[in-house]
Amino acid sequence: MAIDKITTPAVTDDSVTLAKMAPGTDGNIISYDASGNPVAIATGNDGQVLTSTGAGSPPAFETLPVGGITEADLWRINSSFQGDASPVASNWERADEGTFGKIGTGMSQSSGVFTFPSTGVWLVRFIRNVYVNNGDDRACKAEIYASTNASSYIKVSSSWGFVQATSSSFTHNSMLASAFIDVTNATNFRVKFYVAGVNSDTATYGDSDANFTWVEFIRLGDT
To answer: What is the pLDDT of residue 167?
Structure first.
């Protein structure tokens, strides 16, 4: 008499060998679907890992997210100028000396307005070096302004310094403004940089061969 069904008690523990299993695809893994039925997990690609896709769904082979810093960029003012600038709209250049290294796409810039290449939490630092050779400036400052809609801006960081000089000598100082900016929409988020003081003779350092006044952009992680 032909046997068309094997009852559970008839199958003893550890009695089903690999040879008795149905053939499958090389690299597949057996799991269970949301109904509790056996299912084969498709083979992934080289370097992928098996990850959970949540309750009610079989696991899957997926590529691990990229770790570490994925964006780092630096721009500087390439020539000095006197007086206020709201914002600093000209003389920007990306650092280009032989030791400079950029990570990722980098920032884009138009008339002093900088656009982010991707979402994420970004560290933005603005370093301003100044000098004066006539009188003093007690309200010398460097500021970062940010926008979430590519239109209206708010001040997110401000740094103040003091320079004093006589007609026969120069005095120098520097300021650092820094902010964490959570860029949730790379299309609409912007930053720009202001410099100001009460003495119109106060000059902002700039140079095309080294960083005298510059901005740094580092993407720290996901938003």
So the answer is: 61
For the chain, list the domains and their CATH numbers.
24-64 (no CATH), 72-221 (2.60.120.40)
Residue pair 196/158 in contact by the 8 Å Cβ criterion: no
The DSSP annotation for the chain comes to -------GGGS-TT---GGGSPP--TT-EEEE-TTS-EEEEPP--TT-EEE---TTS--EEEPPPPPS---EEEEEE-S-EES-BSS--SSEEE--STT---BSS--EEETTEEE-SS-EEEEEEEEEEEEESSEEEEEEEEEEEEESSSS--EEEEEEEEEEEE-TT--EEEEEEEEEEEEES-TTT-EEEEEEE-S-TT-EE---SSS-SSEEEEEEEE--
Query: What's the pTM value of the predicted model, to 2 decimals?
Result: 0.74
Residues 6+ apart with CB under 8 A from 218: 69, 71, 72, 122, 123
**Token couple for 83:** 């007086």
Q: Higher pLDDT residue, 179 or 32?
A: 179
